[in-house]
Amino acid sequence: MTTAARAWILPANQPPARFYAGGERIAAFRGTGPAQPHTPEDWVGSVTTLFGHDRLGLSTLADSTLLADAVRAHPVSWLGADHVARYGDDPAVLVKLLDAGQRLPVHVHPDVPFAQRHLGLGHGKTEAWIFLEPAPVWLGFVRDVSREEVRSWVRDQDVDAMLGAMHRLQPAAGDAVLVPAGTPHAIGRGALVVELQEPTDLSVLMEWKDFAIDGVRDGHLGLGFDVALEALDRRGRELIEVASWRESSAEDDGALLPGAAEFFRAERLRGDSRCDAGFSVLVVADGEGVLVPAHGPEIPVRRGVTLLTPHAAGDLSLEDRGGLEVLRCRPPAA
Fold first, then answer.
1. C-beta separation of 24 from 35 below 8 A
2. Dihedral (Cα; 255, 258, 263, 265), 10-degree rounding
3. For the chain, what is the total number of helices (H) and then of strands (E)?
4. Do the domains 3-247 and 260-330 sit in the same CATH topology, yes or no?
5. Is-contact 269 167, C-beta < 8 A?
6. Which residue among 74, 208, 232, 281 is least crowded, i.e. fewest CB within 10 A of its CB?
7. Domain ranges of the chain
């Protein structure tokens, strides 16, 4: 049986020594032992590496095969013929668990045109958060800001001015929030989120004071801040527009984040459910049950388990054994 003929339970994949605190909530969610310090991210089903690294961030299957190698060897089986025709052997999505052990710094991710022009990449980093445990977030500017003002904030590390110029939202557990590329943002301390994003590790830091990183050296993707800060959307936005990026649908089943469909797809599944075939990452948000793929063995699941389903595993069924809730994360439609 090839790696693409069955679903896989994925172990934690937490890059060490990140520059911000966290990891305890991921360990509690997964039901594992004490967390290592500064392991606030779990890269789930990843064929993406950390910026500047050749291997760190890549997921390994239970048979010790790198997922990236498995997908390259059998792209149609893993991703489906329609996906391969459009994206090649690129799964075109990255999923993480993110545990904000402290408020994350204000930062911004480039969009596709910026990433193509300055970094030679085919993806930017639009992302979205689905909150398992909520905390405040800062998202977008309340008014237009000039290049000179932004550069002075970054140069002087004027964090109060940055946060004061941004909208502050308070998501609830289960809410989904879209973060378009170019939007300045920060996640508050205490959040545990399932994060979907374009498959890159591209961040431009606006803030690094009191964090374990040399932002002057490492905060600009090697481009220098004069270039890197051009990735920032400096427009002011009305609160009603920013609030529209938040989908308060914790009690609803079905598709989440319809505004993100060109970048990734997500859906919430509760109770007994059926899904069509396709490459996907499943995060069991609550309860317990059984995953029954059309091909390959049944897999008991419970809160905190993450799974990967290749296209060749066929249609999927989820059988509820008590309070089952699953988040299914997928690439954009081909």
1. yes
2. 0
3. 10, 21
4. yes
5. no
6. 74
7. 3-247, 260-330
**Contacts for 47-56 with beta carbons within 8 Å, 24 or more apart?**
47/71, 47/90, 47/91, 47/199, 48/94, 48/199, 48/200, 48/201, 49/201, 50/15, 50/201, 51/200, 51/201, 51/202, 51/203, 51/221, 56/15
Q: What is the pLDDT of residues 103-140, one digit of tens each?
A: 999 999 999 999 999 999 999 999 999 999 999 999 99
With beta carbons less than 8 A apart as the criterion, state whether 10 and 308 touch: yes
Q: What is the CATH number of domain 3-247?
A: 2.60.120.10
- Say if domain 260-330 classifies as CATH 2.60.120.10: yes
CB of 166 within 8 A of CB of 259? no
Which residue, chain included where needed, has tokens 């939007």?
183
Q: Which residue has the tokens 């920060």?
A: 186
| Pick from 229, 260, 230, 227: nearest CA to 244 | 260
pTM beyond 0.90: the answer is yes
Distance CA 274, CA 278 (A): 12
C-alpha span between 284 and 288 (Å, rounded): 8
Phi, psi values for residue 5, rounded to 5° = -100, 10
- Is 304 within 8 Å of 29 (Cβ atoms)? yes
Q: Give the closest residue to 268 by CA, choosing from 170, 131, 136.
A: 131
